Amino acid sequence: MAWFYAAEWPTFAPPLTDGKVQHNGILMLDQGPSHSGIFKEPEFGGPFNYLRMRREVFGTTGAILITRRQNYFEVGGFDEDLPLNYNDVEFCAKLRASGFSSVVDPEIRVYHFESATKIGTFKCEKEKLFRLLPEVDDPYFNPHYDQRNPYYEISTRKNVYPADSIEFERSLDLHIRSRKKYLQSKDLKFSLAVSVYNQSETLLNEMFSSASCQTYNNIEIVILDNGSKNAETLSWLESIKGHPQVTLIRHEENQGIMGGQRTLLEKATGDYFLPMDSDDFITADCVEIMADAALRNPDVHIFYSDEFKSDIQSNKFSPFYKTDFDHLKIMNCCYVGHQMMFRTEYLRSIGGYSDDRSTWCHDWDSTLRGMEHGATIMHVSELLYAWRINPGSTASVETGKKPEAVASQRFVLERYLKSRGLDQTLIIEENELGPNTGMWTLRAKKTLPHISTISANKLWLLSPRECASVLRAACEDSEYVLLLLEGTERYKAELELSVPVHLDSNVKLVGSALLNDKREIVWAGGLLDDEQNIIEPSSGMDPRQGGYHGQLYCQRFVDVVAGGNVLIGADILREALDASGEEIHAERLMVLLSLIARRRGWLIATTPHLEAVLPQEMKPIIPLDRDCFLRDQGLAGRGPWAGSPPLSVSRTS
Q1: List of E strands, 502-581
Q2: How far apart, in Å, do the first and last CA atoms of the chain sit?
Q3: How far is it, in rounded angstroms, from Cα 238 to Cα 241?
Q4: Of 3.30.300.30, 2.115.10.20, 3.30.930.10, 3.90.550.10, which CATH number belongs to 182-393?
Q5: For residue 203, what are the CA distances in angstroms to 93, 215, 280, 306, 393?
Q6: With contact defined as beta carbons under 8 Å apart, do 274 and 193 qualify?
Q7: Gene3D superfamilies given for it (predicted)?
Q8: Domain 182-393 matches domain 445-633 at the CATH topology level
Q9: Are 333 and 554 in contact (CB under 8 A)?
Q10: Most confident option among 7-16, 183-192, 382-391, 454-463
């Protein structure tokens, strides 16, 4: 036996109650390491009085721990990369791996005054713990006990939990544990840049812990005190002076959001610049994963990752699995923010943070400036950033409704259109489809020329041979063919469907939202999954609910559109008809158009601003690819607009 150890409880440690157990052996729950019997009275024993017994446990707390000096040094002692939390868990795991065991004796009682400094700072250290212990399990905690409960209660149907924040956090922790460890580079340096203004110490501690415990070594943490007057903030800033990774700068007076970002960019010495908000945090391997993307893609100028939300208690929830870069959707909302990474010199060269009129949306401004200058923008499909929903944050809904924030967004979007000469055909308007702030939409000033219109209702009732003949004739004297559903105003359809083509002539198909008689979505744009199945994740939804992270409010790129209220370029339509021979039907045509677009690098878009109820007899125009045509074509990987595959971790992982 390697060591012997006592249970403990605090006499006074808010928010704990006097005399309650704080620790009676470490156990591994779904949400990570916890303490057996925590918050219970010392007399609580659990089933068979188990918690009152001297027993072997996964580990014991470092607050009171006895071990042989020789054993301590043989296994390497506490890991200094875990300076505040979980160093005892990692140490116990190393002892177990060396053939020793850990014992707790609940009859030995120690009073421990819990430190308040670690509140809200442990998430990144837990992630790092799981990176250090990729195969960690707890042989002393029976899987038939409730895996979220430290009281050894039998699991029943009542405590089989649905997908929620704890389940997501567990899945994310396991995913981080299994994520590949990438090579370190001495040549590439990364600057984490944070502007601080009168922020609370608790949130600053968590932000800084996540930045300073990164698994990638060659980083600097550039922190700007943007004129803080709050004593708590100033004390925290003083406490990080001298940290080997920190460059600390101060503005005597607040220079605003954009002024702060300018200073950070000016002082950064890294090859890549990663802005962070002072109340957010990142995963422990965030920079390592972004660095790998940079090393593999040296010609990319701007990177962005997936993200999730966090609350004031640092719970993780609401993952946002993003798509590849969509230069249509970016005109509707700034979905790329968090975590963004820019080549530092490139961001300087395009005037990053140079215009105070962009203050309330500097990430959006930087992205659009990059687009204006031909930047390559890459999606890193990993969850790396926790965006905190904090009422005091500049990113809160209350802030987003401020007139100056709305004006800032409008300025950035209109400036981009003007820089590209697109203001002659497109205008920006606030998106009124949903309640979300920061949502905009493009409107066309005029329709595309030379559009030939065909009644979709009549066309798809014809024989396949007649359909092919009608479509060929429509291509002869037009640049675009509109398949219009009855009851839809022609001019409105032409105007709405012209928008994506005005933005980018590489768009060859534009579809719309098709609803059932209950006003639920039947089809708003299909996506290709990993096995080349066509899926429509918004099917059955109320379009006014916005769908996944509000995307149903957005003009956006998709992989497949349906055969009604759709605009088709005559060139791609001719190619599809040539490939199909003498006959064509709705489903095969739309699937074939998707294949041609994918192979040629053409784009397919959809708009939420044109809706129609699809008659029952028109359901066959929905392109489900029932005969698995796409699957047989040897296409590789998910469609670019399907987004990152969600985490799926079994409970036995």
Answers
A1: 507-515, 521-523, 527-528, 534-535, 556-558, 566-569
A2: 29
A3: 6
A4: 3.90.550.10
A5: 30, 21, 7, 21, 11
A6: yes
A7: Spore Coat Polysaccharide Biosynthesis Protein SpsA, Chain A
A8: yes
A9: yes
A10: 454-463
Distance CA(253)–CA(267), nearest Å, equals: 18
**Side-chain-facing half-sphere of 538: CA atoms under 13 Å:** 30
Quote the pTM value: 0.85
Tens of pLDDT along 399-441? 456 788 999 999 999 999 999 999 999 999 999 887 766 899 9
Predicted pLDDT of residue 164? 66
State the DSSP string of 9-72: E-SSBTTBPTT--SBSSEEEETTEEEETTTTS-TT---GGGGGGS-EEESB--TTS-EE-HHHH
In tens, the pLDDT along 497-532 reads: 999 999 999 999 999 999 999 999 999 999 988 777
Could you tell me the two tokens for 138?
Answer: 């707890």
Residues with Cβ within 8 Å of 117's Cβ and at least 6 positions away in sequence, in order, are 84, 205
In the block, tokens 């400094």 appear at 117
- E-strand stretches of 76-197: 102-111, 190-196
Residue with tokens 């949502």: 439
Residues 193-245 have pLDDT tens digits of 999 999 999 999 999 999 998 999 999 999 999 999 999 999 999 999 999 99
Lowest mean pLDDT among 45-49, 304-308, 595-599: 45-49
**Please, what's the b/e burial string for 574-601 (b: 16 or more CB within 10 A of its CB; e: otherwise)?**
ebbbeebeeebbbbbbbbbbbbbbbeee
For the beta carbon of residue 561, count every other beta carbon within 10 angstroms: 26
| Residues present in the chain in total | 653
Residue 79: count other Cβ atoms within 10 Å of its Cβ. Answer: 16
Tokens of residue 488, six digits: 């839809």
Q: What is the 3-state secondary structure (H, E, C) of 405-438?
A: HHHHHHHHHHHHHHHCCHHHCEEEEECCCCCCCC
* CA 485, 486, 487, 489 torsion-angle sign: positive
CATH of domain 445-633: 3.90.550.60
Structure tokens at 100: 């020793």
DSSP secondary structure, 312-359, as one string: TT--EEEEE-PPSP-TTGGGT--TT-SSEEEEHHHHHHTTTT--GGGG
Provide mean pLDDT across the span 293-302: 96
Domain boundaries, the chain: 3-161, 182-393, 445-633
Burial profile 458-489: b = 16 or more Cβ within 10 angstroms, e = fewer: ebbeeebeebbbebeebbeebebbbbbbeebe
H helix intervals, 555-605:
570-580, 586-600
Q: Which two tokens stand for residue 653?
A: 């992982």
